[in-house]
Design brief:
The structure holds two protein chains of two kinds.
Chain A lengths: L6 H6 L1 H4 L6 H12 L20 H5 L1 E2 L2 E2 L10 H7 L18 H12 L26 H13 L9 H13 L5 H7 L4 H9 L3 H13 L17 H12 L4 H10 L8 H6 L16 H21 L5 H4 L9 H11 L13 E4 L4 H20 L9 H7 L6 H8 L7 H14 L5 H16 L3 E4 L12 E4 L7 E5 L18 H8 L7 H14 L20 H13 L4 H9 L2 H4 L6 H6 L16 H12 L54 H5 L18 H9 L1 H17 L4 H13 L5 H20 L1 H9 L11 H14 L3 H4 L3
Antiparallel strand pairs in A: 1-2, 3-4, 5-6
Helix pairs in contact in A: 3-6, 8-10, 11-12, 13-23, 15-17, 18-22, 20-21, 24-25, 24-26, 29-32, 31-32, 32-33, 32-36, 34-35, 34-36, 35-36
Chain B lengths: L2 H17 L42 E8 L12 H6 L6 H4 L20 E4 L4 E4 L3 H5 L4 E8 L5 H10 L9 H9 L9 E6 L23 E2 L18 H22 L2 H24 L6 H7 L8 H13 L4 E7 L14 H8 L2 H13 L6 E6 L3 E6 L11 E4 L3 E6 L7 E3 L1 E2 L6 E3 L2 E2 H11 L9 E3 L2 E3 L15
Parallel strand pairs in B: 1-7, 1-8, 4-12, 4-15, 5-6, 5-7
Antiparallel strand pairs in B: 2-3, 4-11, 8-11, 9-10, 13-14, 16-17
Classes of the chains: A mainly alpha, B alpha/beta.
């Protein structure tokens, strides 16, 4: 692969020609970071030549008359001399690094030194300062910033998209589901802002946005590693949906997931929220060390915490001081110390668990348990009258399945031990005696009630107390058994200061993450929101805000959004509304070739955003337009149709499952049983991660295997069949009226004459084929959906299934436009 | 890849792309970061799976990796230890146990020499046991690496380390690196295929063929000899080929109209993907159908049409590489010889397991040789770690002889693709506790495979989270001695 350094050129070289002062953070630091910092940076062990190029003082100090950087004098700066050297022993970077700094960047370095080599910190570590909104005539500040930037790029806004398209766009972006034709009709006269509010108020909003959060939380319904047994943790998934729907302020959302249990008098919800960090994997393979994998879980918690909330790759500092960013191995393990006190220790039972009861049930159940103890005890000290009929029962030789009971019964009466006698008479009293009928009914009733009221459990975070608290040591070279110095809890304070009044536990850690001083949390979160709405983040590498990440294409815009977010009281829906109401969002996504060429990824938003939704959304959309979708929310994970692979999981059970019955077969994809070892195949084909570790950004590939899914996966065949039935039932009597309904349902628009003609031709061909072959038609119309209504025109249903499938494979259906 | 480069490339890509509609096949995957050719110049090619040149001239153009999930007992197959046989049933010396943990053994286990008979075979005098009668016959075609070692003694982490360079989930696999680097020769078939035999997926899970953080077009596509050859490749019941063609024609027509009106390059890509999918519906079942093979060939492999056996998969591997698939990765379950049941016994159990294994492997090597493919096809056969020179603790009192997991030494067999024939490399100590000469770490094996494919393993990298990642992490040395 070529040197990555060349890339910065395209963006920054333009400034070289102008007289504008060079910006260290944006123009120089990336060059140094890419080429020099690994050996001349924060990592003491890797540092060469006693030089730190990440440190202004050290870079500019007098080295016995030599200077690495001599401000104003590039020709006397060793930095430039070494880069330009032709001597393989002297040249930097050294040849074995396979890196060459392009001439234009060297020129930039020279220019910068000439300008006095002004220094600065990495942009994302600087405090967020609220920039003033550019004056451009735009009312939405987002548009004001963008218009300013577009002007510099020679771009201008596109026209507003047609209303129906905007309604569909908003419905998909906010709720993950397409609008119904009725909704489109009702909303077509409404103001854009009211349409936004309409969809934001739907419970489907929480479901849709929870799916994204669950990628970050690496949520799954199984424990992972080879045997991958099931795990009951869905109460956490439901918590996320509810928290999003009630628009919980983001800082609270973070604090409760990190440390809800440590809040004063935590509520049930706050305790359930801590399951966020119990989504780590549990190793159940025989012969593995619980301590090793407990440690692996804590490492994952540290990495996930920093990745999700702060866009920071901590993993590097796990083995050595970070080579690019100023995070030491010591700081890594001080963060680790916060998370190292959790009681959980890689146990099969996932303890500690929290038990959830419906309101009032807990006390009632406790009473039942007490009553049951009393009731069962009574049988052990039987009233003599209860034994009436005992001998006769014995003489009959009843059939007993329990081994010891059977042995007792089979023993000759005189040889039975006292214990055996007692065993038999107890059994008689508890299960047979006519005299205990009422008592038995009571005890059995209690048993049933206790079983039926068993709580839902969820693994939670809970800290060890007193002497049981663990000591944390630095782990050398990432080896959990090679321990260095002991460390106490702490954070990288150069990122944000630690409030000395905060408790030194997870709660204090959570407050530090969400403090106003933290330069990363609000930026990272707003960038993710932007990425979800517009397709690409303001910082493209939404998972990496450190010095090896990308620079924001519009730093002022990001900072303004971050500042506004904090000012708003971390109000996610408010910020989302701001983006969704922008002119940028409302534009048509149609692309002129000029706009395409100039800005292929549409980062400057001179046209509306358009991208492929997730596999989960595509399935939900198909279920919705076909009318199959179940509106049921929450609860036990469900198992929609999935192909049988005939494979087992290593040291575990079958990887296949039986399809859920009834409406559970057609629930929103978010409720699908998420197995780490056997991810739901169609979601995986559309780039869903397997939830083994946190994934901040999904890939958006476009492959032939995806065509197989939407053409042939029984899930999509079934939705085509259901749509066909719907069209014949609700679509009027002509082919054209039915096609119009199909377009309204699937695309929220009218088909044009040519589209109608194409589909009518296909329909005619299909009808002819299926009329000629009834068996073929029956298969096409009913497998796997099931029998059609009595008297239904099966060949017509089969033909409309083929047509529906075409509509549901249109690029326009598979893209959110 | 640096995202800025991604932007540049995709700009360039789309430009080329728009002017060359109609000429591409798989790919034109415009949404993706696209490859650069190995010498550093950005490639104008818009297909991420298009064939590419490696860093230098490759010895191997393709790989068939035969993985025996569970860890075959090296001391009963290739690594003959007569001294250990002499010490059988003695207590294992404390020096080997001190400070160590084993998966299922605590206390002081008893040493166990092999109960099998070893002899030397071929011109290189390769040691092999009576468990592998068919390997004996191909001794002149293979290299046995005898002092392999790994860092992990549990299955999942050991498999992940072997196939992704890291013992936890999340990194790209060997096959995906190879496909990322080289693309593939046949655009109507997946570039990286994996197949599983004996009904259980490997402990390392789908991560063993996953693409980690590199684009998902490079992940292994699981093919099956029963059911859909590739998931969802079969048309639904009631759909004829003729009607499928008609639906795709309508789809193409409608999509094209949208493209003309709205100008989205992705639409063109999607049209292409559906056309490719249509072709794959023929090409995949075709290549996966072994019934067209000659009876003599089926017999040589021990393959039977309709089964999902390791033998069938070996034959399929040949059919796939012959058609231009870059990397075929087979996983065979049932090599965890603990001795907890008769199948895991190193005497009869191993004989039975090997009977279903060494014959198809030998047949595969012979078949490739006859077709002139062996010289540029690399074959690797082995497990994720070795097994202890002592009896496993749990089963010490049973009739069944088993060994525990052991990371310090194990053997693998390599053939073709630029590797020497009739050669054994590396030595373990006389008791089989560790390598004493020419040790090869799993990262070294990875570096060597990449070298054979024409790559400097330190330079085939992918930028993720601000770091350039590579298969060998920060390790790995090419084992030059085994190169032909």
């Amino acid at each position: 692969m070529p040197s990555k350094a060349t890339l910065f050129l395209g963006v920054f070289v333009g400034t070289l020609c102008s007289a504008e002062p060079i910006n260290f953070s944006r123009q120089i630091r990336p060059i140094l970071s890419e080429n020099c910092i690994a050996c001349h940076g924060p990592d003491e062990k890797a540092r060469k030549g006693k030089l730190r190029l990440d440190d202004e003082k050290d870079s500019k100090r007098d080295r016995k008359g030599d200077f690495v950087i001599l401000p104003g004098k590039p020709e006397q700066s060793e930095l430039i001399k070494r880069i330009e050297s032709t001597d393989p022993d002297d040249v930097m970077p050294p040849p074995k690094q396979h890196k060459t700094i392009p001439a234009a960047q060297v020129a930039l370095l020279k220019q910068w030194i000439k300008q006095g080599a002004p220094w600065g910190r990495h942009w994302s570590y600087e405090p967020v300062a609220r920039p003033s909104v550019p004056k451009s005539g735009e009312t939405n500040p987002v548009d004001a910033f963008l218009a300013d930037r577009q002007k510099k790029e020679g771009l201008t806004w596109s026209a507003e998209a047609p209303k129906a398209i905007l309604i569909r766009r908003l419905a998909l972006d906010i709720t993950g589901l397409p609008p119904t034709p009725t909704e489109v009709a009702q909303l077509s006269g409404a103001k854009h802002a009211d349409i936004v509010a309409h969809f934001l108020a739907k419970p489907a909003y929480g479901e849709h946005w929870a799916r994204q959060w669950l990628d970050l939380a690496r949520y799954a319904d199984s424990a992972g590693y080879p045997s991958d047994p099931g795990r009951v943790i869905w109460a956490y998934r439901d918590w996320v949906i509810k928290a999003l729907n009630r628009n919980q302020p983001y800082d609270q959302f973070v604090i409760e997931q990190m440390a809800g249990d440590l809040l004063p008098k935590p509520t049930e919800d706050q305790i359930i929220a801590t399951a966020f960090h119990r989504n780590t994997m549990t190793q159940n393979e025989g012969g593995t060390s619980d301590e090793e994998f407990r440690n692996a879980a804590v490492i994952d918690r540290v990495n996930t915490t920093y990745a999700v909330f702060m866009g920071t790759t901590m993993a590097c500092a796990q083995c050595h001081t970070h080579k690019y960013d100023p995070i030491t191995i010591n700081e890594y393990f001080r963060s680790y110390a916060f998370l190292n006190q959790s009681v959980d220790s890689d146990k099969r039972d996932e303890s500690p668990l929290y038990e959830i009861y419906p309101p009032g049930v807990k006390a009632q159940r406790e009473q039942w348990v007490k009553d049951a103890v009393v009731a069962e005890a009574a049988f052990k000290k039987p009233n003599p009258t209860w034994l009436a009929g005992y001998d006769a029962w014995l003489a009959k030789g009843p059939k007993l399945t329990d081994k010891s009971l059977k042995a007792a019964l089979d023993a000759p009466k005189e040889k039975r031990t006292k214990a055996q006698d007692k065993l038999l008479s107890d059994y008689y009293v508890r299960n047979v005696s006519p005299a205990t009928k009422a008592e038995r009914a009571l005890a059995d009733g209690l048993k049933k009630q206790i079983a039926a009221s068993a709580p839902v459990t969820v693994p939670i975070m809970q800290d060890l107390a007193g002497e049981k608290r663990r000591k944390t040591f630095i782990q050398l070279r990432g080896n959990w058994q090679a321990l260095g110095d002991q460390v106490d809890e702490g954070v990288p304070t150069h990122l944000a200061r630690w409030d000395d009044s905060a408790p030194k536990n997870r709660l204090g850690f959570a407050h530090w993450i969400t403090s106003r001083d933290n330069p990363l949390t609000a930026r990272v979160t707003m960038n993710r929101l932007w990425e979800t709405v517009f397709g690409v983040g303001i910082v493209r590498s939404s998972e990496e805000f450190g010095s090896q990440g990308d620079l924001p294409f519009h730093p002022e815009l990001l900072d303004w959004l971050a500042a506004e977010f904090v000012e708003s009281g971390w109000d996610t829906k408010k910020m989302l509304s701001l983006l969704l109401n922008s002119r940028a969002y409302r534009q048509t996504s149609a692309a002129s070739s000029k706009r395409n060429e100039q800005d292929p990824d549409n980062r400057f938003l001179a046209r509306g955003p358009r991208f492929r939704p997730s596999g989960e959304m595509l399935r939900d959309q198909a279920l919705a337009v076909s009318g199959l979708i179940s509106a049921k929310m929450y609860g036990v994970p469900v198992r929609p149709i999935r192909p049988n692979m005939g494979l087992s999981i290593a040291f575990g059970g079958s990887g296949d499952w039986a399809t859920s019955a009834g409406e559970d077969r057609h629930r929103r994809s978010l409720y699908t049983d998420t197995r780490r070892s056997t991810p739901y195949p169609s979601f995986a084909t559309f780039d869903a991660p397997n939830r083994e570790t946190c994934v901040v950004r999904r890939d958006r590939s476009n492959t032939p295997l995806q065509a197989f899914v939407t053409l042939n996966d029984p899930v999509f065949v079934e939705t085509s069949q259901a749509l066909a039935r719907r069209l014949l039932k609700e679509g009027g009597n002509t082919d054209e009226s039915r096609l119009r309904l199909a377009y309204a349902l699937c695309l929220s628009r009218e088909p044009d004459a040519k589209e109608l003609a194409t589909l009518k031709t296909l329909l005619a061909k299909s009808v002819a084929q299926y009329k000629a072959d009834a068996a073929l038609a029956l298969k096409m119309a009913t497998e796997p959906l099931g029998p059609a209504d009595k008297g239904a025109d099966v060949p017509a249903l089969a033909a409309w299934t083929a047509v529906s499938s075409v509509i549901m494979n249109l690029d326009e259906f598979l893209m959110r436009r | 890849m640096n995202p800025l480069r991604e932007a540049q490339l995709s700009l360039q890509t789309r430009r080329t792309f728009l002017s060359s509609v109609g000429q591409f096949s798989l790919g034109a995957i415009a949404l993706h970061a696209l490859q650069t050719d190995a010498l550093g110049a950005p490639s104008a090619n818009d297909n991420p799976l298009a064939p590419r040149k490696p860093h230098f001239k490759a010895k191997a153009k393709r790989v068939i990796y035969l993985h025996m999930s569970g860890g075959p007992p090296n001391l009963d197959i290739f690594d003959y230890k007569p001294e250990l046989v002499k010490c059988s049933t003695q207590d294992c010396p404390d020096s080997f146990l001190k400070g160590r943990t084993f998966a299922f053994t605590t206390g002081v286990p008893k040493l166990m020499g092999t109960p099998r008979t070893f002899k030397q075979y071929g011109q290189g005098g390769l040691w092999m046991s009576d468990a592998v009668p068919n390997f004996q016959k191909i001794a002149d075609d293979v290299t046995i690496v005898k002092a392999m070692h790994t860092d992990q003694f549990n299955h999942a982490p050991a498999e992940l380390l072997l196939f992704t360079g890291h013992n936890r989930q999340g990194r790209p696999s060997l096959g995906s690196w190879a496909t990322y680097g080289l693309g593939t020769e046949n655009q109507d078939l997946p570039g990286f295929v994996t197949m599983i035999s004996n009904g259980v997926q490997p402990s390392g899970g789908q991560g063993c063929w996953g693409s980690g953080f590199i684009p998902s077009v490079y992940q292994g596509v699981q093919c099956r000899s029963k059911g859909d050859p590739v998931l969802f490749a079969n048309d639904p019941p009631g759909m004829t080929r003729d009607l499928r063609r008609a639906t795709l024609d309508a789809l193409k027509d409608l999509n094209q109209r949208q493209q003309d009106e709205l100008g989205h390059a992705e639409t063109v890509t999607r049209i292409a993907q559906y056309e490719l999918a249509f072709r794959m519906q023929t090409s995949v079942p075709d290549v996966m159908d072994i019934s067209k093979e000659k009876p003599a060939t089926l017999e040589a492999y021990g393959a039977k049409p309709g089964e999902s056996s390791f033998a069938n998969n070996c034959l399929l591997a040949r059919r796939l590489v012959e058609k231009g698939v870059r990397f075929v990765h087979l996983f065979d379950w049932g090599w965890d010889f603990h001795g907890t049941n008769p199948r895991e016994d190193i005497r009869d159990g191993l004989t039975a397991k090997m009977a279903a294994t060494d014959k198809p492997v030998a047949a595969l090597i012979n078949d490739l040789k006859e077709r002139g493919l062996l010289e540029d096809t690399l074959i690797v056969w082995g497990g994720e770690f070795g097994r202890t020179p002592f009896r496993e603790g749990r089963t010490a009192k049973s009739e069944v002889l088993g060994r525990d997991h052991y990371p310090d030494c194990f053997s693998i067999m390599m053939a073709g693709g630029g590797v020497k024939g009739g050669f054994q490399f590396g030595e373990t100590d006389e008791m089989g506790f560790g390598g004493v000469k020419d040790k090869v770490h799993v990262h070294d094996l990875q570096a060597t495979i990449m070298h054979l494919l024409g790559f400097d393993h330190e330079r085939l990298t992918y930028r993720f989270q601000g770091r350039d990642y590579r298969l060998t992490d920060v390790h790995g040395h090419v084992v030059k001695q085994i190169l032909a």
